[in-house]
Write a structure and sequence with these properties.
There is one protein chain. The chain is α/β, with parallel strands linked by helices and 379 residues long. It has 15 helices and 13 strands. The strands form four sheets. Strands 4-3-2-5-6-7 form a six-stranded parallel β-sheet, with helices on both faces. A hairpin with a 2-residue loop joins strand 11 and strand 12. Helix 1 packs across helix 7, helix 2 packs parallel to helix 15 and helix 7 packs across helix 8. The longest helix is centred in the middle third of the chain and has 26 residues.
Length: 379
């Protein structure tokens, strides 16, 4: 039939099917990056220490094979090097110098596979005065300026470990690895990728640091439109103790919000006069405390007033928007976010491990066999 071939056939497996990633077990951004890559279709094999336990109920552990190895044993190191020969990328999150001491540093690995992308994930980076210091998300975002900008007038507030570990860490790590793999396919040369959470956190602040430099952003917390300073971009408590959010920045959306709240056209006007924001926040607090969260949802949700209820993580999967998009799945008995983003043809899904209960040598042999078959098909 005419037009029959216009709709591409869908294929389960995600757009990274065929990409092979070696993940050295760690905490924070490395396992989350491994989850994202696996969700997109890459085959991820995590190398654990002997006796390591992985709770498969944790979303960050999903979708890859687990292989245990003694990293102080020369035979295990040689098997890892064999595995590297067939890999597209490595992910490691140790302090600088650890992989070199194990005999798995970039120089050694790239000699075995010149096309490999060697990804290094740390808090402070591979060099600099803090490179060998311990730290956590809160420390990495502290020096970037991000922590100072988040919180109340009285003090900064840790924003979970989303800004450093996952935003400035995992997401930049995934982007870096994929960009490196794309480049290696055209140049036939691998390289080392140095990803630091403090760098990523600073990069995330690009817009705000620029606005601050030209005088359009105040560094005092809760003094700008989107940092809790304004009344029209804020969180408010309801009559039932739950919370709602409003973000009516644009004048038309602000006018609609006022109308739906029962305010007349001239009341609380001159929206961007920051000197009036504290009093107007008090007025909004009074209004939103008059009804329950459910009542406000019935009135405001789905309008252009830029409104949403503040849900807990256990309530979020029940929201009608997530329900309609099937944004959460049941995996290993736990409700967790589904793979994202969504592709029209190469459909992402949580993978079943491709090499369950295999040894490191087994995985290396299997990868080598598949590499030979792939090379043969190209000739």
């Amino acid at each position: 039939m005419v037009g029959e071939n216009l709709t591409p056939k869908k294929r389960l497996g995600g757009p990274l099917a065929g990409i092979r990633i070696i993940e050295f077990a760690g905490i924070g951004p490395v396992p989350f990056a491994g989850m994202l890559l696996s969700d997109l279709g890459a085959e991820v094999v995590r190398i654990d220490r002997i006796g390591a336990k992985n709770d498969l109920r944790e979303a960050v552990n999903r979708g890859r094979s687990f292989v245990q190895a003694d990293l102080k044993d020369t035979k295990s190191i040689d098997q890892i090097l064999q595995l590297c020969e067939s890999a597209d990328a490595i992910m490691e999150g140790f302090r600088p110098g650890v992989m070199e001491r194990l005999g798995l540093g970039p120089e050694t690995v790239l000699a075995r596979n010149p096309r490999l992308v060697y990804g290094r994930m740390t808090g402070w980076g591979q060099d600099g005065p803090l490179a060998n210091s311990a730290g956590h998300d809160i420390n990495y975002i502290a020096i970037s300026g991000a922590l100072a900008a988040i919180g109340t007038l009285e003090a900064p507030v840790p924003p979970l470990n989303l800004v450093g570990d996952y935003g400035g860490g995992s997401l930049y790590f995934v982007m870096a690895l994929l960009a490196g793999i794309i480049e290696a396919r055209s140049s036939s040369q691998g390289q080392v990728v140095d990803v630091a959470m403090c760098d990523g956190a600073a990069s995330l602040l690009s817009m705000f640091s620029s606005l601050s430099a030209i005088g359009l952003w105040r560094e005092e917390r809760s003094s700008n439109v989107i940092d809790g300073g304004s009344h029209f971009y804020n969180v408010y408590e309801c009559a039932d103790g739950k919370f709602i959010s409003v973000g009516a920045i644009e004048p038309a959306f602000y006018a609609l919000l006022k109308k739906l709240l029962g305010l007349n056209e001239s009341e609380i006007d001159d929206q961007n006069n920051s000197s009036t924001w504290p009093a107007r926040k008090d007025r909004f607090k009074e209004i939103f405390r008059t009804r329950s969260q459910a009542d406000w949802c019935a009135l405001l949700e789905g309008t252009d007033a830029c409104f949403a209820p503040v849900l807990t993580m256990s309530d979020a999967p029940k929201h009608r928007q997530y329900q309609a998009r099937e944004s959460f799945i049941e995996h290993n008995g736990i409700t967790q976010p589904a793979p994202v983003p969504r592709y029209s043809r190469t459909v992402c899904r949580v993978q079943d491990p491709k090499a369950p209960n295999l040894s490191l040598a087994d995985v290396a042999a299997r990868w080598k066999s598949r590499t030979s078959q792939r090379s043969g098909s190209r000739s």
